[in-house]
Each structure stands twice: as structure tokens, then as C-alpha cells.
Amino acid sequence: MNNRDIIKKKLSILVRLRTYLVYSNEIAIASGIIGKPAEALSMADGQNLAAFRMRYSEYQEQLGKLLQSIAREEDIDIKGASSVAAFAEKFSFIENENDWQHFREIRNGINHDYEEEYVAEMTIAMRDSVKDMANMLEPILLFCLKTYGINITDKTENIVSAPKLSA
Questions:
Q1: pLDDT at 110
Q2: Is 34 left (phi over 0), alpha (psi -120 to 50) or beta?
């Protein structure tokens, strides 16, 4: 599989993962788990939190892998998270390198530093960053369409109608 095929596959996966992330964010908000301390979570809340954590983490990780694939296609050497952030800013996929670092720190926190006393803060950080992280895919999709001719569609969703979180 060549690099452009990998990019196309990752884009398709990310469109689907973004839908899941937005849905889990909406469920987390509607169920009232955002900002709720761990000891106050019911079993259903814990299930919603687990789905939200997983979907946030998976989306951020796959987005990073996509950025690395695009950088390779553009003959740009990526060495670590700061290189990914610099690349994303240079190509206007994000406004500022710190945005990517913030998404990454949240992902690392929910996966590696998960402690029950920080559940409330963690859910707030996730909710507050989902919109920007989810919408980050839009300029990437446009870049890949214009630069590589990759147009991602599937039976349920077109790149134009992919969910966007409003302010």
C-alpha cells in the first residue's frame, strides 16, 4: 500500500471516528458526567465515561498518525510530537502548535495518568477541546482533496456533511 492509499484509508477512518467522538461528547454532556467526581458516577455514567475516553483518545491518536503520513508524503521529517505540532501549524491544520500539544496532553492524561480524583477535571478538558480537535479534520480533508485528489465519502456520510460541533 503506498502512502497516498494510507492517507486515504486514515481519512476514511477519521471521518467515522469523528462521528463517534461527537456522539460520545453529546452523550457525556446529556448524561451529566462532565465535571462529576468519580465517586458520584453510576455504572451507566462509568460506561459513558469509558466510551468518551476511548473515542477521544482513539481520534487524537489516529489524527496524529494521519499528520505523520501527510508529512511523509510532503517529504517532511517528523521526529516526535513537537514536529507533528509544527507541521500541523505550518500547513494551517491548526492555528497554533500549542493546540496539538493540548490535545495530546489530554489524551495522555486520560490513558496513562488516569486517577479518580481528576475525573471531573478530565471530563471538562475533554469536552472543552472536542470541538477544536474534531473540526481540525476539515482543513486536512480539504488539503488532501486539493493536493492529492483524495475525496472521502461513504454510504452514510460525505466530508461536507460530517458532524461539526457548534460553539
A1: 84
A2: beta
